[in-house]
Structure formats: C-alpha cells, structure tokens
Amino acid sequence: MCGIAGLFNLDGRRADGAVITAMRDAIAHRGPDGAGLFLDQSFGVGHRRLAIIDLRDLAGQPMSSPDGRWTIAYNGEIYNFRELRADFEKRGWQFRTRSDTEVLLAGIATIGVRETALRLNGMAAFAAWDRQTRRLFLVRDRFGTKPLYVWRRPGVLAFASEIKAFYRHPDFSVKVNSSALREYFTFQNLFRDHTLFAGVEHVPAASILTVDQHGERIERYWDYDFSNTIDLDETESVAALRSLMGEAVERQLVSDVPVGAYLSGGIDSGSIVALAANRIPRLQTFTAGFELSKTEGIEASFDERRAAELMAYSFKTEHYEQVINSGDLNWSLSRVVWHLEDLRLGMSYPNFYIARLASKFVKVCLSGAGGDELFGGYPWRYYRVFRSLDKQHFLENYYQFWQRLTTGEERREMFGAAANDEDEMFDVFSGVFANTGNIGFDTPEEQISASLYFECRTFLTGLLTVGDRLSMANGLEERFPFLDNKLVDFAMRLPVRHKLSDLEHMLQIDEDALKKKLLAQEAFSGGKSCLRQAMSQIVPEEVMQRRKQGFSAPEASWYRGENAQFVRDMLEPGKLACTEFINPKFIVRTVNEHLSGKFNHRLLIWSLLCFEQWCRTFLGLQGTAA
C-alpha cells in the first residue's frame, strides 16, 4: 500500500525531478516507510512506500525491469502474487525480490499490461512506463479499490494517488467544477469521472488509460455482470459460498506485518473475523461506538459495541474499542475533509477515528465493505423498483430514490434559478447503465440485479474512496475479502432468490395495495440470505438475527443537541466561505428546519459542513469573519 505521483511532459520538455519529489512528498502519509524517484527525460514518477510484503529496501519503488524497458510505481496489494510468480518463473523471469511489486512488473513485461490487469486478484492502481515506445499506462483494479487521479494542461499530464499532490505543480490552480458540485449535492456521490476540482479526473475502475505524444486512449477491461446466473439449489449455493469465503479471507491475510480486522455488530465483519481468527491466534479487532445518552429515536440503537464484544468473546480476539462523542466532529472535520478531497457519501468521520485506533496496533486491517452490494444487503431499496413496467420506469423510480440530498427544485434555490439541471442529473444517473447491454429490466429478478449493478458501480465506489482516504491518512492499509475475484464472480452469478429470502413474499403482495406494499418494504430485511446461512455455524445467532445497520454517528440528534452551536457557527451566513457557490438563504433554511425538528436534514447538513470546510481548505476562502 503506497502513494504514487508523476508527470509526463507530452511536449518533450524534461520532467522536473524537484516538482515530482514535492508532489510525491505531499502524500507522504500514504507511505511513511520509504520514498523513491525515477526520471526518464520527459517522464518521471515518485513513490511513497508503506511496506507490507518483503520489507527490504530491495523491494522499494519505482521498480524497473532488468533490461530497463519497463518501470512501474504501484499502490496496492496482489493477493494471488505467489501463483502468478510461479507462472512467470516458468516463462523465464528471474526474481530478485519476494515482493508482489516485482510480480506485477514481470507480468507487464511478459504478457502485457491488459492481460496482467485481468489476472490480478487484489487491489492496485499503478503507472507503467514503457521506455522503448515512450508510452505511459495508468491502470486501476477492477473494483476501483485504489485511487488514481489525472490532471492535464497543454503539453502535460500529471497523475497521483491523491489530488493534493497536484498542488505542488507550479501551474496547478484550484477552481470549482460546478457540474460536479451539483452532482454531489444531488446524489451525495459522483457517478462520473470528474471531481470537485475543475480539470481533475480519476481513471475509471477496471480501466487502462494509455498516453503517448500522439494522444490518449481509455479502455475498460472488466465490468460487473449479474445477468449470467448459475443453476444451484440452496444447499449447493451455501456450501460453495462458505468455501469461497474461507479462501478469500485466507488469501487476504498474506502479509509480512501484523493484520487485524474491523469488527462491527454485523454479519459482514463478523464473518470475516470468524474466518480470520481461525488462522491468526488472538487476532486484533477494532470497534468504534457512540455516546448515546442524548440521542433519540432509531439513533439510540446506533452503538454496536455490545454485539462486537459478543463476537470478540466468541472468536477469542484481542479487542479494542473507541467511543466517539459529539465533540469529536469539531476536532476531526478539517482533518477529514483535507484527506477526503473527493467528497463522497455520508458522515465519514467515524471511519477516520476507527482507522486511527487500528493504526496504533496493526498496519493492515480487514473490512467488510462489499458484502451488502454483492449479496443484496439493502432489500428496502430494491423493492421500491423491482416491479417497474420497463427500463424507463425503473430509471425514473430509482432516480427519485437516489437523490439523497436535494431535488431539482431545491437545487434551483441552492444554486440559483439558472441551475435547471434535472435533465442533466437524470442523464448522469441513467448513464451508469450505458454500454451494458447484458442488463435486463423486464422481470423482478432482472430489476433487482440491475439495482445491484448500479450500487456496485456507484455506492460501493464511494465507500471505497472514503475508506482509502481515511485509512491511508493514518498509514493503515484496508483490505476487502468480499472483493476477492472468485467471490465476486460467484456473487454475480448467484440467483436473486438466494440473496433475498423475502422475495417470494414481496411478489405476492397486491401491487395496488400501496400502503401494504410500503409497509412491507420497510418491514422485510431478508437480505444476504445465502451469506447468513453460509456463516450460521460460526457467527453467533444473536448477530445473525440483527437487522441491517450502517456505521453512522447519531448526527440527527447531535445536530439538534450538543453540536447545534457548532453547526450554526460553521454555517453562519456572515462566516460562510461557500457563498460564491451556494445561496446562503438555502443553508439558513436547511439548518433551521433541522434544528426545529421540522425535517431530518442530517445528510444534507453533513454535506454542507464538508463543502464549507472544503472551500476553506482548498480555496483558501475563510469568509468575512475570518
């Protein structure tokens, strides 16, 4: 796990090593264990290392092939590197290190960039430089687990693991991408490849960006496909999943440094910890809980420490906890936004705290991300659209649901009457399904599979973005056993009826009985049915029966109570830095409606806080009272 940053001067000018070094060291938190630099006339790349496999200096980066043709700088971990190493040895490669980096280099040199990317089981974002053809390849793993951003100006292409590296280039300046801003305040996510920083994009997941002096070419080499299901009965599916889960966890335990695991009160992290604890005695596990004495409603149940403690006791782990209280938002917001840069999803500062806790004990931590998106963990979402009349009906219904923050009318108030973007945002939403002719929308099962596809391509991507930034902010590598290639391939082919135990019941509900249907959508939570059965013998029954709950602070209550003054101070009209972009009257109304209890605007207030802090941090705007 590392950070990379580099430049390719397409106009032939010599790459400035001092600039690249400054870019590299701007993301030193991603790699505190070492630094490297490679220069070749118009191209240069820097690397910061977090040493996980083969800790020797010999395994440092950038790393070049013996003949000098290929050089790579790489961020990630390849879990099947030993099998690949054996294959490349048969092809004649003589290895000098025990690292997965050299395996990646050997693959590129022997079978090519695309074929190597297809064979990687792991997480990777890397730059591969071909000195012979003067060609650069920028590549991301199939799930987009590791980030890779690009910024262009005439004659120059810069790339980096984090956007803040571009600040060290003398020609870089920050401007807000207004289209991305409206997209963020629609979906609390970005579905396109751009960012809030005008001119900065990310290389898409499962893609190869090829760059030379003649231009650029982008190729997507893999995509999710939930359409080709297998004909297995329930018993066969459960047995196959149990086996694949064990293999995935074992693969991702490969490391030359200590490995721990996050442990919430749910089935995803519980399953991973149960399997990992069988292989690592006294596995170290980490939970973050919340101080809930002044919370109300459903948020009073947000603390998962009791369920986590039960699992820690059952699996004999060495367990550590942190209690987050309302005041922790104030201290962490500026740090969280600085590291996030690319704003995504909801209240993420608890992720920062639990990564900070884990990093005091281990360098690698297993996470349960991906289980919900692959195995149907959000049935109340799918049941909203699983009886759509056709594709257009499906898209219109799901679009209404996924406008997590604002409607078109609210955005006109927020950004001004000229921001009539309803058609644009709907096109952004439906564009996720572009170039996917294998997706069907005719049957309930097809519509649910389309929902899973959408959430893997968008919501999961957002979770991975947040996870990478806030773990690497603390020099911690997160790993995701649910995103093992073989496990994902199986999950995509698993029939919907094996994921949602409530499906048959929902199909029997009278479509015209709207109230009954809506109540059923909220009541049924039979998601991840096959996973629950596969793990039922090793995860405590109490955990198996818990309703789905996300990892989120009780902000609705805290914003009205202990954090009310902090919210008012941050979003007070006279102090706002974001008024160039957002109507302050909209902000005032949103805050007042929430504090009065009229509406629950917790997601929108979080995003307003983040963007206000983003403006102060990255634009240097401090408002009139600064």
Walkthrough of the structure:
This protein has 626 residues and is an alpha+beta fold. The strands form three sheets. The chain has a six-stranded antiparallel β-sheet with strand order 2-3-1-9-8-10, covered by helices on one side. Residues 622-626 have low confidence and may be disordered.
CATH topology of the largest domain: Rossmann fold
**Tally of contiguous helical segments:** 26
Assign a percent range to the helix content. Answer: 40-55%
CA gyration radius, whole angstroms: 24 Å
Largest sheet: 6 strands, antiparallel
Question: How much of the sequence is in beta strands?
Answer: 15-25%
In short:
The protein is of the alpha+beta class. It is 41% helix and 15% strand.
Helix and strand topology:
Blueprint: E1 2-9, H1 17-25, E2 34-40, E3 43-49, E4 63-64, E5 70-78, H2 81-90, H3 100-111, H4 113-119, E6 122-130, E7 135-140, E8 149-153, E9 156-160, H5 178-187, E10 200-202, E11 207-212, E12 215-220, H6 234-251, E13 259-262, H7 267-277, E14 284-290, H8 305-315, E15 318-324, H9 328-340, H10 349-359, E16 364-366, H11 371-375, H12 379-382, H13 391-402, H14 408-415, H15 422-430, H16 444-457, H17 459-472, E17 477-479, H18 485-493, H19 503-508, H20 514-523, H21 529-535, H22 541-544, H23 555-560, H24 564-570, H25 584-595, H26 602-619
Parallel strand pairs: 13-14, 13-16, 14-15, 16-17
Antiparallel strand pairs: 1-3, 1-9, 2-3, 4-5, 5-6, 6-7, 7-11, 8-9, 8-10, 11-12
Helix pairs in contact: 2-3, 3-4, 6-7, 6-18, 6-21, 9-26, 10-17, 25-26
